[in-house]
Write a structure and sequence with these properties.
The complex is a heterodimer of chains A (about 425) and B (about 575). With about 425 residues, chain A is of the alpha/beta class. Chain A folds into two domains: about 250 residues, P-loop containing nucleotide triphosphate hydrolases (Rossmann fold, 3-Layer(aba) Sandwich), CATH 3.40.50.300; about 160 residues, Arc Repressor Mutant, subunit A. Helices cover about 45% and strands about 20% of the residues of chain A. In chain A, helix 4 packs across helix 5, helix 9 packs across helix 12 and helix 13 packs antiparallel against helix 16. The longest helix of chain A is centred in the last third of the chain and has 18 residues. Helices cover about 75% and strands about 5% of the residues of chain B. Chain B has a two-stranded antiparallel ribbon with strand order 1-2. Classes of the chains: A alpha/beta (about 425), B mainly alpha (about 575).
């Protein structure tokens, strides 16, 4: 029994994915990733956005050809051949002009399955996934949860041995997502789906611990597997179980740990100095999180999973805010906790003007790009500088999209701090008249 | 989509009531409707395929009994043209979207062709098609259909191309993941996704097309006069004979044809195409059409549409053999060099053709002619600009007023769209009579004819824009007591600006085209002329002076392109960047 289960379905070896930028500085999205998917397991790829986990999933789905390395489907006697895959999309990817049934039949139609057969199999899949009664509905008539069920039925109907899921529940509200997870796990545990194994991408740590037998944690920029965690809790799992909590806590700590011995604050965002890629985080969010950590509930030090629960934020939203606070020395991350620095405490206690002054001081000290913009403006006689020159400078280090995002983030922070002004119509940075 | 009639109750009931009802009045109506159409189409096609001699023997006669037949022929020409445009759209649009090298040539070409005054080309195309089918009416028919085609195809192809370029990546991935063949992808993903934009553009093209079909049925090129039986020829004859009654009948027939085509063809299609809209949320306003509702309510209709449904299924069942081709991936640098080489080759070819054309023209044309054309072009440019400004001053306030009152907007909007589709050239003789009777200066008073048919685009776009003003903005403005000029400056004008620009671009383009027929008009033996490039082209056409026609068209194209680049495109960019409300 064990031996047959050990037979690999998918082998990913040394996969690298590189996007050429044209100016020589390539962006490494995936770096030397290895993965073996075996029978009867649910494997989670966990990481924040930009860690290349979706890219890996698409390489396995055959939608992308990796720059280097191979994705192979070894011949498997249990399957009479190689494993086949089908994918479920984050955005559902339903064709709005096709009914539920036509959407489900799409893959069969492409395979040239006859009409009667197609219909029979589609109805069976619709039935299995709990969509009966909706066969003739158009996707726009359905709620998000029902749409994702269509996505699932569409993937299952082609009889894949591996189900690939790209953040399948992240576009749904909390309750709906939970219902769908439970339903899927029930079908999986009862063996009612034809699939042999599931590979899912997620940025939700609890979801990964709840569903997966194995979790691969990815680092960002470049995407690498930094940890492989086996979850041996029996299904159905209980989120309140101390072992469950401990596992979640452990993953939070690993994902916020600083790589290597880089100086405090740097190293969490890709790139260094002016070339650091910064997330677009509004100053309201920064202030809000500082206040929450300072609140009577946390008293200046918060456990990240708890903070995430409290603020209803998933790691994709939570981490950028926490890390921006860390970059500006308003808070510190350690071992899955976030703690206010003395400056952070002062910020929370201060009034609006004092907050701005403190923020400006930290912005200009700890964010190299903000410092640079300010410097250039002070040197210029007209106290003005085109934003384009900074954008061009950033593009030496990162993609144009990332450069635009970084500059926008710093512009927003600089405006709040009144460190410099920006005029959209002329695309100019300037020092506001001091008077 | 701004052209959809607002939802009214009742459609909902019609949709769900009695799906399996017995044959009823509705069935009968559908039968009559479809049966009549079939008979008329067959009859019309039979008439078209006559030798040219028959044409000369039976020229158009101003008998009232003949008018419906003429109207039918004109309509059939329109549909032939739209069919050609659709085929062109699918082929060229797909080609441009899938091949970067094709796109390098096709996209600028479409852009230019959109701005060229197609009426000016009639001379060349008539000569070409008459030569293609010597002695047969089919040549003249082709020339007429082609004239309409050249007015319609470009924006449709452009719209299809842009839809293909913006196919959502998740749907693209889903189709690739299920390995849809190119053919299935075209039917299941590409055409449905492009459908709303394509239908909107087809409607705009049809609106513009009536103008050209009327203008192209009676053409005089030098000594050759081609008269195709149709509303346009009827009108030309009525003008020649100074028969006011016949002119009025033509106006009535045209109005009826446009109203019928809108109700019987386009509204049902728009209502049906509602399901192709990409929004994932159910829309509040469903486009409705009584013909469509009728067709869904009746069993007979389903039987009658069975062939179409069968055709759809057959298309889907058809699976062209897959060509096993491995994409050759070249290094990025090599790709860039190949692109450059291709672009270079195209440029060289264009330059060679231009030199050749210049040589030919220089033999027959003197430099003064060029100067004359440019001067006249400036005159026409001044007319177009002044008229657009006047039309805007009149229609923007009225459009805003109407747009803010939903009840009015619902009533006026279809009417404005109807007026935009109505070929203004049908009304020209009446205007000429007025000018002659009152002894007005043609240089001034012929000008309004240029915007006569195109000003409605401004009106209905402004109405659409004002209707789309968000309620919260209006409420905020009224709460803070924003009124009069401040209200116009901060609420109304910025809110409608993107819509207004769209309307003004269409109106301006249409006016250039209209100048070719509006600057030189006649009533019997009375000829009125306004000095301008349009009259220059019209006179050269009548004289069969091909080089002068070519020069006129080239200069006019140049003016249109410069106006687009220097004025409309920046305005459009500004509207897109700064004034979008979503």
């Amino acid at each position: 029994m064990l031996q047959t289960l050990d037979r690999p379905l998918v082998e990913v070896s040394n996969v690298r994915q590189i996007y050429a930028k044209g100016n020589g500085a390539d962006v490494v999205v995936l770096d030397e990733v290895n993965l073996t998917l075996r029978q009867a397991e649910i494997v989670g790829l966990l990481g924040r956005s930009g860690s290349g986990k979706s890219t890996l999933l698409r390489s396995i789905a055959g939608l992308i050809t990796p720059t280097a390395g191979t994705v192979t489907f070894p011949s498997n006697p249990d399957l009479d051949g190689q494993a086949s895959v089908a994918m479920v999309f984050q955005s559902f990817a339903l064709f709005p002009w096709l009914t539920v049934q036509e959407n489900v039949e799409l893959g069969l139609e492409a395979q040239g399955v006859g009409r009667a057969d197609r219909r029979r199999r589609a109805l069976a899949a619709i039935d299995l996934i709990g969509l009966d009664g909706f066969e003739n509905a158009y996707p726009k008539e359905l709620s998000g949860g029902m749409r994702q069920r269509v996505g699932l039925a569409r993937a299952l109907v082609v009889n894949p041995s591996v189900l690939l899921m790209d953040e399948p529940f992240s576009a749904l509200d909390v309750l709906t997502a939970e219902t769908l997870r439970t339903d899927l796990l029930d079908l999986w545990c009862e063996g009612r789906m034809p699939i042999k194994s599931i590979l899912m991408v997620t940025h939700n740590i609890e979801e990964a611990v709840l569903m997966c037998d194995r979790i691969l944690v990815f680092s960002s920029n470049p995407g690498r597997v930094i940890a492989e965690i086996k979850v041996e809790l029996p299904q159905p799992r209980n989120r309140q179980d101390p072992q469950f909590r401990a596992l979640v806590e452990d993953i939070y700590a690993r994902m916020t740990a600083r790589a290597g011995q880089s100086p405090l604050g740097e190293g969490l965002f890709p790139g260094t100095g002016i070339g650091m890629v910064l997330p677009q985080v509004s100053t309201n969010l920064l202030a809000g999180m500082l206040e929450e950590i300072a609140s009577s509930k946390f008293k200046g030090q918060a456990d990240l999973p708890e903070l995430g629960d409290e603020l209803m934020m998933e790691i994709d939203e939570l981490f950028p805010v926490a890390e921006t606070l860390q970059l500006m020395r308003l808070a510190e991350l350690e071992g899955g906790d976030i703690r206010l620095t003395p400056a952070g405490r002062r910020y929370v206690a201060a009034d609006v003007d004092a907050r701005k002054q403190l923020f400006a001081q930290h912005l200009l000290t700890y964010v190299p790009l903000a410092r640079r913009i300010r410097q250039v403006l002070e040197e210029r006689r007209g106290r003005e500088a085109p934003a384009g020159r900074f954008r061009a400078e950033l593009e030496d280090y990162m993609t144009p999209e990332k450069a635009a995002q970084t500059l926008k983030a710093v512009t927003d922070w600089g405006r709040y701090a009144e460190a410099f002004a920006y005029h959209e119509a002329t695309d100019l940075f300037s020092l506001e008249d001091p008077s | 989509m701004v052209f959809l009639a607002p939802e009214r109750r009742g459609a909902f009931i019609a949709r769900f009531a009695r799906p399996f009802a017995k044959p009823n009045i509705a069935d009968l109506l559908m039968l009559v409707l479809i049966g009549t159409s079939a008979v008329l189409v067959v009859h019309g096609v039979q008439q078209m395929n006559q030798p040219l001699a028959a044409l000369h023997q039976h020229p158009v006669v101003l008998e009232l009994g003949r008018l419906p037949g003429y109207a039918l022929l004109t309509t059939l020409r329109m549909f032939a043209a739209i069919l050609c445009s659709l085929i062109f759209t699918f082929v060229v649009g797909s080609l441009a979207a899938k091949s970067r090298k094709a796109a390098l040539v096709v996209i600028p070409a479409l852009d230019i062709l959109q701005s060229v005054p197609v009426l000016g080309f009639l001379t060349f195309t008539v000569a070409f098609f008459l030569g293609l089918f010597p002695g047969n009416e089919l040549g003249a028919e082709c020339a007429s259909v082609f004239a309409v085609f050249t007015a319609q195809a470009w924006n449709m192809a452009f719209s299809f191309y842009q839809s293909l370029r913006t196919i959502p990546s998740d749907l693209d991935e889903a189709s690739r993941q299920f390995s849809l063949s190119p053919w299935r992808r075209f039917l299941r993903l590409e055409v449905p996704f492009a459908m709303p934009g394509l239908i909107w553009n087809t409607m705009m093209s049809m609106s513009g097309g009536w103008f050209f079909v009327v203008a192209s049925e009676a053409i005089t090129v030098g000594d050759n006069t081609v008269t195709l039986p149709g509303l346009g020829s009827w009108l030309a004859l009525a003008i020649e004979r100074k028969d006011l009654g016949a002119v009025v009948w033509a106006v009535g027939a045209m109005a009826l044809v446009i109203a019928l085509y809108d109700q019987l063809i386009f509204r049902p299609i728009v209502a049906w195409a509602d399901k192709f809209r990409f929004e994932q949320t159910a829309s509040q306003e469903r486009a409705r059409s009584w013909v469509y509702d009728l067709s869904r309510r009746t069993r007979l209709a389903r039987t009658l549409f069975a062939p179409i449904a069968w055709l759809g299924r057959a298309l889907l069942a058809f699976e062209p053999p897959r060509i096993k081709s491995r994409a050759i991936t070249l290094p990025a640098r090599a790709e860039r060099w190949i692109d450059r080489a291709w672009l270079g080759a195209v440029l060289v070819a264009v330059i060679l053709v231009a030199i050749k054309a210049a040589v030919v023209l220089s033999h027959t044309l003197a430099l003064p002619a060029v100067g004359e054309a440019v001067t006249l072009g400036l005159l026409t440019l001044a007319r177009v600009l002044i008229l657009i400004v006047i039309a805007s001053v009149i229609w923007v306030p009225i459009g805003v007023w109407i747009g803010l009152r939903p009840v009015w907007a619902e009533r006026v909007q279809p009417f404005a769209q109807f007026l935009a589709a109505f070929p203004a050239n049908v009304l020209f003789p009446i205007a000429v009579m007025v000018i002659v009777a009152l002894r007005l200066n043609p240089d001034v008073w012929l000008s309004p004819l240029m915007v006569f048919g195109t000003q409605w685009y401004i009106l209905f776009n402004v109405i659409a824009g004002a209707s789309a003003l968000p309620t919260d903005l209006k409420e905020a403005a009224s709460m803070f007591g924003v009124r009069r000029w401040q209200w116009w400056r901060t609420v109304a004008l910025p809110g409608i600006f993107p819509y207004y620009v769209t309307g003004a671009i269409t109106a301006s383009g249409g006016s250039w085209n209209a100048s070719i027929v509006a600057e030189l008009v006649s009533w019997g033996q009375t000829h009125l002329e306004a000095r301008g490039l349009g009259a220059f082209i019209a006179k050269a056409t009548a004289a069969g002076d091909l080089p002068r026609v070519g020069l006129g068209v080239a200069v006019m194209s140049l003016f249109v392109i410069i106006l687009n680049r220097a004025l409309w495109r920046p305005l459009y960019g500004f509207a897109e960047r700064r004034l979008r409300l979503d």
